[in-house]
From TrEMBL:
<dbReference type="InterPro" id="IPR053859">
    <property type="entry name" value="MVD-like_N"/>
</dbReference>
<dbReference type="InterPro" id="IPR041431">
    <property type="entry name" value="Mvd1_C"/>
</dbReference>
<dbReference type="InterPro" id="IPR029765">
    <property type="entry name" value="Mev_diP_decarb"/>
</dbReference>
<keyword id="KW-0456">Lyase</keyword>
<dbReference type="InterPro" id="IPR005935">
    <property type="entry name" value="Mev_decarb"/>
</dbReference>
<dbReference type="InterPro" id="IPR036554">
    <property type="entry name" value="GHMP_kinase_C_sf"/>
</dbReference>
<dbReference type="InterPro" id="IPR014721">
    <property type="entry name" value="Ribsml_uS5_D2-typ_fold_subgr"/>
</dbReference>
<keyword id="KW-0443">Lipid metabolism</keyword>
<dbReference type="GO" id="GO:0004163">
    <property type="term" value="F:diphosphomevalonate decarboxylase activity"/>
</dbReference>
<dbReference type="Pfam" id="PF22700">
    <property type="entry name" value="MVD-like_N"/>
</dbReference>
<protein>
    <recommendedName>
        <fullName>diphosphomevalonate decarboxylase</fullName>
        <ecNumber>4.1.1.33</ecNumber>
    </recommendedName>
</protein>
<feature type="domain" description="Diphosphomevalonate decarboxylase-like N-terminal">
    <location>
        <begin position="9"/>
        <end position="161"/>
    </location>
</feature>
<keyword id="KW-0067">ATP-binding</keyword>
<keyword id="KW-0547">Nucleotide-binding</keyword>
<dbReference type="InterPro" id="IPR020568">
    <property type="entry name" value="Ribosomal_Su5_D2-typ_SF"/>
</dbReference>
<dbReference type="Pfam" id="PF18376">
    <property type="entry name" value="MDD_C"/>
</dbReference>
<keyword id="KW-0444">Lipid biosynthesis</keyword>
Amino acid sequence: MKNKVSARAHTNIALIKYWGKQDPDLIIPYNNSLSLTLEHFYTDTTVTFDDTLSEDTFFLNDQRINDKKVVHFLDIVRDKAQKNVFAKVESTNHVPTSAGLASSASAYAALALAASSAIGLQLTKRELSRLARRGSGSASRSIFGGLVEWEKGHNDEDSFAVPIEENVTWDIQMIAIMINSHEKEIDSRSGMQHSVDTSPFYHDWVKTTEQDLIDMKDAISKRDLAKVGQIAENNAMKMHATTLSANPSFTYFNPDSIRAMDAVKNLRKSGITCYFTMDAGPNVKIICSKAETPYILNKLSPLFGADNLLVAKPGPGATII
């Protein structure tokens, strides 16, 4: 047996955050989340199952890496296919790795599609979403394009993402302010578990997020960019409040993150419709319209450098390439 398949998947940025697992092994979250898949950032992955191999190998950006999570994920794929064959995995990240730009979402969505196809599984998008979730929770959403909701479910069968609007035709996009492209000190898995375990605000955050999701879906249905931005910004800050209130506390902010957030607030004061969101990393994403993007870029370039401002429109779901 020697089967080779390549796939591409794009990152997504959550407008309603996922932060914390009820079941760390199956990656079942405490709350539903909602994201926008982005065109600019993506991962290309090639998987070759070859019965002449004696072990799994993984190459990221042409560098061999020993990654137990990738091997574990391949074990899940092998178990589903009932085939005992090793694989060579070659991945290229067109997004900074572990910098709060959802590289794990695109990585495991691409891996799920490439690996399942290469081993002979013919999975539906829902089944692919469930599979991708086992590698990274947010990867469940990157199977689909556009606006996507991850339904938390209660078990492996009913925790998957569903598209809300795959072909986004209204005026919404993001600007990523690349404050730091280096790997973060506290990875998402460790950070969210520490928040769940020690923050006195954690379960209140989950409770308020349920209403945020209802309000967000209503704002999306009305194409209300300002409301979408307001809800997303507030939801993100509540998530980060759980890291600041953890014991011991920690943060993904750095001084430039705060400077970027203040800059967005100042743009709003001048009449521009723009809002920020942040994930587990220092980089700030701005939710805005295509129409106002040139003005925003002009104002932020002197502060952060034009090369550090990356515009990302809504992107597609995972595909074979």
